[in-house]
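pasting for ref
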Amino acid sequence: MSAPATPTSDAGRPVTGAMPTIRPRRPRRARSHRRRARVINALFVVAMMLVAVWAAWPIYQDVSYLIMAAGAMLTGIALAWLGARRGWSWFTVLLAVLGGYLLLGVPLAVPTALSSVPNILGGLLDLVTATVFSWKELVTIALPVGSYQSLLAPAFLLFLGGTTVALSLVWRGGRLFALAVPLIFAVQLFGLVFGSSAVSIPLTVLGWSVPAPRESLIGLAALLLAFGFLAWRTHLARSDALDLAARTTGVRRTPGGLGGRVRRGVLAGGVLLLAIGVSLGGLSATWATPARDVLRSSIDPAVDLREYISPLSQYRSYFSAERYDQQLFTVTGAADAAAAGTASRVRLAVLSYYDGEVFRVVNPAAGESDQITAFARVPHSRASTAQRVTTRFDIAGYSGVWMPGAGELSSIRFAGDRAAELSDGFFYNAGTASGIQLNALENGDRYTMVSESQTEATTLAALTRPAGVTIDDALIPASLADWVDAQAVTSDGAGLAELVTRLRERGYLSHALTAPSLDTAPEDSWTADLGDYQFSPSLSGHSVARIDTLFTALLEKQNNTTATENSQLVAAIGDDEQFAVATALLARHLGFESRVVLGFTLDAATTAGAARTVGAASACLQGICSGRNLAAWVEVAAGDDTWVTVEATPQFQNPLSPIDDTTRDPQYNTEVIAESATEQRAPEANPTSGEDQQEQEEVTGPDLAWLFAALKIGGISLAALLAISTPFLVILGAKLKRRRDRYRAADVSARFAGGWDEYVDAAVDRGLADQGSMTRVEIASQYGSVGGTVLAHLADRAVFGPVPPGTGDSDAFWALVTAERAGLAASGTRRDRWRAALSLRSFARLADAGRLFTFRRRISRYVTTTVRSNRRDTSRMGERPHTSGREA
């Protein structure tokens, strides 16, 4: 700094004996300086919040997310500005944020509810419940989620609250401005913690590979902005301190030398480069793997499917007289792809895992928690390509959780009276391109699916056997392996295709153990639909024992004859349930990955009068699918993430050989006593093992669905009310504990001091000013309370007096404190009493942080501290007077 300027006369000569001239900053210049500082602070906060928006983009990837983020940040800026302009307390700002959240939450966070007034009211309820429950839903749903249901609510709450609180801290938090940095860091972590476990593709720059470039750039941007903000605030504090010194001493401030600026710049740059190097090194070590651990990695999104019977076990029920000709659903739109010459299929369930009894949807070894095979909640829209097919399903007689679909899902929209309920119950498995509906489908439901077009990459004969495939021999019947050895075929795709052809042509179609009744109408009988068909009984089920029986019959027939034509070696009896499983096990025995698919075939070339080809299941006519059209086929992995479809239905034109036809079942003579003879019903067959099943009486009881619905609504309402009221309950509990600790202090003198503090806290919470470092008597006189003056004298006597007080004296003192608090409460309205009970000004007073949420307009930027003489810094009881001064 330069020396103080010496005053001169009009003639230009120095005036001796004059005091240094003080040059205060002009008010207009000071206001401009404060306005510029406030704008720069806001720009730093907005830039750091934009990094948080960028970090959370992969979770949503929708325009509605950008609109929501912009609205939340603008609202937060407006609330923080109003709070600073009008001097709102922290409680008022909290209520303003809550009001903005409820007022703007539906249009910004639940935009799908804006279709009608009832939907808006429902969207408001969804917004309130989403405040508590949507956090877990966000990590149990497939990404991106877009604007699905109310899943924008967590991001909206963070962006709105984070912007408001951060700006309030940097504008009016004083020395606590630095708390804005970890606060915004927490908001930025939202996108990384709740996002996908996969990281971005490594980027190579000048021969140096950068792992997870997107995540690295987010971390680097957050670090640079935080560093720049803290450096700016440090520079601002230093500049203000120099200005204060200049105004106080009259010493003019001159710019620093170039050397000092260079040293500070080099030091700041070195620290910044060190921080960047350490950060990038840590990121390289952390994100060197293609996946990272996030919340969704440890939270199970699966649906428990153990209570649902395997759909393949229910296959034969669709060929009963009641369901054979029953219209299940209608498919519209998928026939366009079939018109081009390719058949389109509707997938009902994809069964990838076999445990020896039934084919299952989920892996029995890993359980329902397996992330690969789990059915998870998905948004309405998923990533897709240009090759898409739109299919509409109108449900008629079909009911169940297994949902008809048309390939890999791109988007889905539910319609009808149960649209919202169906949307909540829809879960999807991307690995098998199949979905389930927990709120079981029923008559009148409809939905539209946009799916990827179904293409066949190659044929079965063109497949090559993959290497390193392990097979569980316990799930492969010995007769299957012997039959394969007897066929003398290769172990590649061509050999598998030949085995499947021989299996189908040497099998015989049969859907039941007994022939349909003669009274059954022809349109309801599967035998009548097959034309000149000779019925042969067959057991249901697809366990290892059932498949072993099938291949044992084929092997015995081949060993007992010299015929080589497939039509002369027909011995296995069954339908798609057994032959699809047998085909899948054949593929696995040769080393190919396989799975069984249950569904329907849509073929535009099929007409009502067309005859069925050998071994082919009938296709849905004009998109109308009934029980007769249900089929099961096999998909074999091609090795390039594609699957080859393999038909498995056996033929029905060539019946069993004459030897098999002449074989009669053993006859047993049973003596019947007429007097005690009773009619015995035939036992029902177990669809999984063929064993008899005892008839069980239907258990009936009162319908408690209304009670469960009422309990659900009540529980959600109670949870929302609890979430809203939790902050207020915490405040009341903290004040109650503070009062109790003061009253029960171990030292009696400390009880008097605590009682006085309780009185002052009650006054401050009711809007009276904190008197800072005044004595107790002075504070009581400022409050104008006669009882307060008595309390001040008693507290001073107990703390500073020569005779220690007794327990009875403290009880009497606390009785006076309670009376004074009651008098303060009686002086205001009920609203004032509630505001005082929930006020945090007393906590801010004790923490010496009252300026954080004391939003009084300042006359001066600087706080002056009044130092009183003849005041002891510490009393003999360890009590230290307050040192926070009042603003000028």
